[in-house]
């Protein structure tokens, strides 16, 4: 399946998309990767979904990436004697360590460690920000706060602490169980929720041992403050606008989105824009005009992938949502202004062999109007560095490692292919020419450019370029 679209589509699976037939339909409609949200999925179900995706992958003969999204630390209040209570602006309200049902004056916070980190003047956001409290006094076992905006607060609502640095592990006991199951299932990416600092990435990297790519979800103000350091240690990033929009003022989210997408591109790290992109399509067969513009903005910005959440997981029109996103992205990429906007954001290459070669490949391919770029990549690094250049020419990323080919499904413009490694560079050239033809990017007589490492089979040695003409027999001639 040859997609001309450069930006990738990440579709979340759920009740509306949990059987093989629907997963296949979503893939044919445009989904390049699938997300499994462990906040709503048990390990057994995750294993089943991974198996179904791999069946679809085998039939489509295309590598499909799988991202498992860990729940991360979630904080919730306890219950109320009457199921909830109305809160009025200005009233005092207490969160404490008393497990008794709450009332109009107090409620249980079953996370006593929080009281050691809260300080007067810190905000507490409950029920996705519908209730905002301002901390006034903090004691060993309770905190006294003032209600900043009135709303009815009910049982087990979530609570977040946007001003508080939570010196807790970002990997919960549930996350560890889910991660172990995900690694056993053979997934490709793991997403970390509610990270605050680079050390959170280091913690999960020690647990994954290089078996998967680590995607950092930016959804807390502390993560925004440490964005540069997080970009440096993560393998990919996500603009998680849902929770981010709860913890920071809504008007700041668009600017933060641009900071993340541009920072990730400078570093050559894939970036996903997520949450509420086609929200109305949960219940309607067409999106709003504002949603179309939102998706288009992410594509113009050069995001590697755009994500569907409830639209594909629980909505009434999952296939239509993917197909709509595919049409919007494809149309934007054909827009007269798209190429100039993408080129204007291109960062200077780093002083590395991989970046120098990636920059040269892109420039040569565009100057000579070549049919395709073919990069051989064992670890995926070469593919990602070429993707960072955002070339106008199609890019085939060929890897002898199936896990690498699947992981590269997230990279902008990368048509990843799994295949056996050639014995020498001439064999690589012939294989690249054959692939360019069979994958639909070139015809005999066209020229392509190949980048690879010599000697063959040694990771991290990308050091060679060759322009080849595709002969009538599909092989290459220098």
Features:
M1 Pyruvate Kinase, Domain 3, 16 helices, 6-stranded mixed beta sheet, alpha/beta, Pyruvate Kinase, Chain: A, domain 1, 3 domains, 8-stranded parallel β-barrel, TIM Barrel, 478 residues, single chain
Question: Would you give an account of this structure?
Answer:
The chain is α/β, with parallel strands linked by helices and 478 residues long. It folds into 3 domains: 8-72 and 170-336, Phosphoenolpyruvate-binding domains (TIM Barrel, Alpha-Beta Barrel), CATH 3.20.20.60; 84-160, PK beta-barrel domain-like (M1 Pyruvate Kinase, Domain 3); 353-477, Pyruvate kinase, C-terminal domain (Pyruvate Kinase, Chain: A, domain 1). The protein is 35% helix and 23% strand. It has helices at residues 20-29, 43-60, 173-185, 198-208, 221-225, 227-233, 241-247, 253-267, 289-300, 310-313, 318-333, 338-344, 353-367, 381-388, 402-407, 425-438, and strands at 8-13, 33-37, 65-69, 84-87, 92-96, 106-108, 123-126, 131-138, 142-149, 151-154, 159-160, 189-192, 213-218, 236-240, 271-274, 305-308, 372-376, 395-399, 414-418, 447-453, 462-470, 476-477. The strands form 4 sheets. Strands 1-2-3-12-13-14-15-16 form an 8-stranded parallel beta barrel, surrounded by 8 helices. The chain has a 6-stranded mixed beta sheet with strand order 6-5-9-8-7-11, with no helix packed on it. The chain has a 6-stranded mixed beta sheet with strand order 19-18-17-20-21-22. Helix 14 links the parallel strand 17 (372-376) and strand 18 (395-399). Helix 9 packs across helix 11. The longest helix is centred in the first third of the chain and has 18 residues, at 43-60. The model has no long low-confidence stretch (mean pLDDT 94).
